[in-house]
Write a structure and sequence with these properties.
CATH architecture of the largest domain: 3-Layer(aba) Sandwich
CATH superfamily of the largest domain: Vaccinia Virus protein VP39
Structural class: alpha/beta
CATH class of the largest domain: Alpha Beta
Helix content: 25-40%
Number of domains: 2
Number of strands: 6
Distance between the termini: 47 Å
Length: 160
């Protein structure tokens, strides 16, 4: 489909054998596994894209910021794709959906000291790590509870 794309899947070391078993043979020359702990510095430098799927959702801003800081330094123009929930502004959804999201938000707070984030809160999280991060796009597929947010690391403003 996209023969020039190469991917490294990072996860717990014990998942390597499962990855090897499930990765189709025709993709093994372009998709590899690497054991990595996101609390440590990112070993893959200067990637075009880093993707975090349902990772930051589980952590308060303090710890989510640490995970993002471990991606730095990255090259200008690198992107971070975050696949996670984006809490809509109040009054946008039918009340019963809004009530369900509020309940989930409270559960996240009680269980994990985390929270569901609005787009503005996602932006603030990234800007708090590096002010050069900018939200480029948010795409929410129909019937999905998650969105794909694309953050890009922009060139620093050189103000004299």
């Amino acid at each position: 489909m996209h023969p020039k794309i190469h991917c490294i899947v990072q996860d717990f070391e014990h998942l390597d054998s499962q990855f090897q078993d499930l990765c189709p043979q025709e993709l093994k020359n372009r998709v590899s596994f690497q054991a990595h702990n996101f609390w440590k510095e990112q070993p893959v430098k200067n990637a075009d894209i880093y993707m975090l799927k349902r990772v930051l959702h589980d952590y308060s801003d303090k710890y989510a910021s640490k995970i993002l800081e471990n991606l730095l330094p990255m090259k200008i123009g690198s992107r971070v794709l975050v696949i996670d929930a984006v809490k809509p502004p109040r009054g946008i959804m039918p009340w019963h959906f809004e009530r369900m999201l509020t309940s989930l938000d409270l559960q996240m707070l009680v269980a994990l000291s985390s929270k569901e984030r609005t787009a503005e809160e996602w932006i603030a999280l990234f800007k708090g790590v590096d002010p050069r991060f900018a939200l480029k796009s948010v795409v929410k597929p129909e019937q999905s509870s998650t969105s794909v947010m694309e953050f890009v690391l922009n060139q620093e403003d050189l103000k004299v």
